[in-house]
Design goal:
The chain is an alpha/beta fold and about 400 residues long. Helices cover about 40% and strands about 10% of the residues. The protein is built from 14 helices and twelve strands. The protein has a seven-stranded mixed β-sheet, with helices on both faces. Helix 3 packs across helix 11 and helix 6 crosses helix 10. The longest helix has 19 residues. The N and C termini lie far apart (about 55 Å). The structure holds pyridoxal-5'-phosphate.
């Protein structure tokens, strides 16, 4: 018999994917260059040259087994060492090979991390606005995701409400900074206070509480700044990383888990991940992709395009009277819609071939997300449509 749970999901498919499919269909009618598609976080900037060169070189020099064979279940040992060294160099945390587990992107990393530190029936807390795929990532493991409401003033986590929502049944807290969909980077002050609440609650409840830190946008930060690294603030941290965004490689499905060496049972957590893979099928990411990312471990695609797009959009949105927090990074922005019903707002925008995503599923009703990982030329052309949309539909404001 077909599993009803997944069958029912067919009627509640990802809003982002549906809008992206709409944009593609509309593009077939009027030319995709005329559709201002801000739906999907699919990086437009090419991957770094070094990655392409590494793949070619690997194909030219390695044996078929080295290239296409299964990697060890925790990932290629040499690659894990290269990842550990890079993190140690960058963040001053003494990671070793044994703390790294290679995954199929951040999705694979979170799927392992949640099973590593929770059992069915446990609670996991996250903060709105949040990536909607967290719901299936967490709930399908048997744990239950609860969401701390957003503080729309600046989209930093609302730690007072968080503290009041903590119970002994919370075994893990899931954070994402730089954040999809707000683009906000969690400040040092936020991370320090979050860590101090978690430490206090660990003592009070008498058990570990793990921080699962989802970091696919770690390097996409603007104005020459860097995102504070959550693992530096709290020992029981499992960092979930992906090369999808920083190297523009989402289709390669490659990332990793990095266990803080001071976490409880740090020496065996990555090994346990190898056992989790056996049950969930997210096992042994592509050997070629592992070897190739290791060649460009400290490189990042040219993110100046995203910063430029952020500046253009932010300035225009402010000019048009939107309430909007300026993103520090990623390639998302989360303005407040010009009417309470953000779904109605985004539906009207479609008439101007503007594809905007209502943020209701991100835990932020009344707001909408724009993924501006598109060509700057298109962002510039979209401004006229944005102005027309606002002036025609909301001119009495
Ligand atoms: C916040 C966040 N977490 C996780 C993911 C999944 O990333 P990956 O492609 O690495 O699986 C995404 C993808 O957009 C994301 O935005």
């Amino acid at each position: 018999m077909i599993n009803e749970l997944y069958k029912q999901r067919l009627s509640a498919k990802s809003v982002i994917r549906e809008l992206s499919e709409y944009a593609t269909a509309r593009g077939a009618e009027i030319g995709y260059e005329n559709v201002f598609d801000y739906s999907l976080g699919n990086p437009s900037v090419p991957c770094v040259d070094g990655y392409t060169k590494a793949v070619i070189h690997l194909h030219e020099t390695l044996s078929p087994m080295e290239l296409h064979g299964y990697s060890p279940s925790l990932g290629n040992t040499k690659v894990r060492g290269i990842v550990a060294d890079s993190l140690k160099r960058r963040f001053g945390i003494p990671y070793e090979t044994k703390h790294i587990f290679m995954t199929s992107g951040a999705a694979g990393a979170i799927a392992h991390a949640v099973r590593l530190v929770t059992k069915p029936g446990d609670d996991v807390l996250t903060f709105a606005p949040f990536f909607p795929e967290y719901l299936p990532y967490i709930n399908d493991s048997g744990a239950r995701l609860s969401v701390v409401p957003a503080d729309t003033k600046d989209f930093q986590p609302n730690l007072d409400v968080f503290e009041s929502m903590m119970t002994p049944n919370v075994q893990a807290v899931l954070i994402n900074s730089p954040n999809n969909p707000s683009g906000v980077v969690y400040s040092e002050e936020t991370l320090e206070r979050l860590a101090s609440i978690l430490r206090k609650k660990q003592t009070e409840y008498g058990h570990d509480i793990f921080l699962i830190s989802d970091e696919p946008y770690r390097e996409i930060v603007f104005d020459g700044k860097e995102a504070p690294y959550p693992s530096r603030y709290y020992d029981n941290t499992i960092s979930c990383y992906s090369f999808s965004k920083s190297l523009s490689l989402p289709g390669e499905r490659i990332g990793y888990i990095a266990v803080n060496p001071k976490a409880t049972d740090a020496d065996i957590l990555a090994v346990i991940c190898g056992q989790i893979s056996r049950g969930i099928g997210h096992n042994c990411p592509s050997s070629t992709a592992q070897l190739a990312v290791a060649e460009v471990i400290d490189e990042v695609s040219d993110i100046s395009v995203y910063e430029r797009n952020r500046n253009i959009l932010y300035d225009e949105l402010v000019r048009l009277g939107f309430t909007v927090v300026k993103p520090d990074g990623t390639f998302y922005i989360l303005p407040r819609a010009l009417e309470e019903d953000s779904i109605a707002f985004c539906n009207k925008a479609k008439n101007y071939d503007l594809i905007l995503v209502p943020a209701d599923n991100f835990g932020c009703p009344g707001y909408f997300r724009m993924a501006y990982c598109i060509d700057t030329e298109k962002v510039e052309r979209s401004l006229e449509a944005l102005r027309r949309f606002v002036q025609t539909e909301y001119s009495t404001r």
